[in-house]
Amino acid sequence: MIRVHCTPEDLLRTTFADRPAPLMDVGLALAMSQRRDAHPVFSPWRRRVARALPRQARPLLQLVSPTGAGPLFLDPPGLGLEEGVDRIMATPRAYVRTELERVTSIDRPLTSWMRHLADRDRNAWQILERAVRAAHATVIEKVWPRIRAGFHAEMAWRSRLLAQQGLHAALTGLAPGIRWRGLTLEAAAPLDAEHTLHGHGIVLLPSLLWADHVLAAPQSDGRLLLVYPAVTPLPLHSGPPSQDPLAALVGHTRAHALRLLQRQHTTTDLAHELAVSPAAASMQAKALREGGLIVSRRDGKAVWHWCTPLGLDLLAHAGTSDMG
Fold first, then answer.
1. Is the pTM of this model over 0.85?
2. pLDDT in tens, 191-237
3. CA dist list (Å): 102 to 63, 95, 108, 214, 224
4. Nearest-CA neighbor of 207 among 293, 74, 78, 310?
5. Of 15, 164, 182, 238, which shows the fewest CB atoms inside 10 Å?
6. Are 99 and 41 in contact (CB under 8 A)?
7. Edge-to-edge strand ranges of the sheet holding 2-5
8. 227 - beta bridge partners?
9. What stretches of 113-222 adopt beta strand conformation (E)?
10. Would you place residue 243 in the very low, low, confident or very high pLDDT band (cuts 50, 70, 90)?
11. What angle do CA 266, 314, 267 make, to 5 degrees?
């Protein structure tokens, strides 16, 4: 469980990141690639990444856990490749040691290369730089336009949710298992962590390459970075960035499903209309339901789905509603 103890000033200073974080996404992609849980969206993507990851990039697997934990000096948020690599290479020795001790206390074995990193061995740090560049080139570089388009679609969606339903709904809707207890935000996570804030605020950063619990990373300026899974992960953003704003947010299949659900459909009907299996249709409905865009109700053996007012409003603003 992650617990974030906020002050009123922290809530007033809660903001969204203004751009995606490519090097943070490198680490999250490597974390996802190591997971062995069944995931209907990321499983094929993980196999592709595992096959494509070059030997030069593999040292990073020693540092990054499948839980999403890794040394914070590898994740300079909001910086491009060159500036980010420069920031990584300039990490003070004391901070390197602290972060390596933290990740080895979680589930990473202490390797000889990690010891050399802690000692600021020049060759070890050259290996790290090559690994970061190779992983970025393999996992991020070619799909960066899709990541950027998905990020901006996510920001538009979350900003609208914040304006319509307030900060409470915006934060609790970041991922399943989030709730408020007074001024403390609690989020389900495999590791326990406590963060006490002092009025500097929270920054919300979606990732299209992470599909699990919220991750919390204290920043040097006193703010807390909360990384959460985007509504639509990268594997569902196939092809070039969409000209359809709704598809850019939720993906083409989910956009089609949402348009269909302006009128009630059962899961079986939805599967037929989408030309997918009932299991796949159920998965798409679950994602839309978790985003607050549809509701579902069981009636005997059938499950009926239809748009919420928020879903209808999103369709109307995307120019795709057929409801008069």
1. no
2. 889 999 999 999 999 999 998 899 999 988 899 999 999 888 888 77
3. 11, 11, 9, 18, 18
4. 78
5. 182
6. no
7. 178-181, 184-187, 2-5, 193-196
8. 205, 215
9. 178-181, 184-187, 193-196, 202-207, 215-218
10. low
11. 10
